[in-house]
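Q: Mind making up any chain with structure tokens?
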Amino acid sequence: MSVQTELHQIGTESAETSGSCCGGACHTDAAAPAADSAEESTTAVYQVKGMSCGHCEGAVTAELSELAGICSIQADAASGQVTVVSAAPLDEEAVRAAVDEAGYELVGKV
């Protein structure tokens, strides 16, 4: 299954054990996340230039997953869009640097 059709979940705990929508990976405090933590997350969609295949999607996903607070990433080469769910809004320059590191160009938020 390619990254295009698979929602990449970051974290090692399951939602059942952590009480979180994303396995707790996007929560920075040691306390258990609140039951409504899914409502506290932020979703941003970015346009990325240069992705053409599943490998490209994987490269962008891998670099973005290194950013603090990431819960999930879904990259779609066909549309050039990358959807990122995070605990808090991400710094666009950090996102740009991660996409650049992967070898692609961040056009901006959709």
About this structure: The chain is about 25% helix and 25% strand.
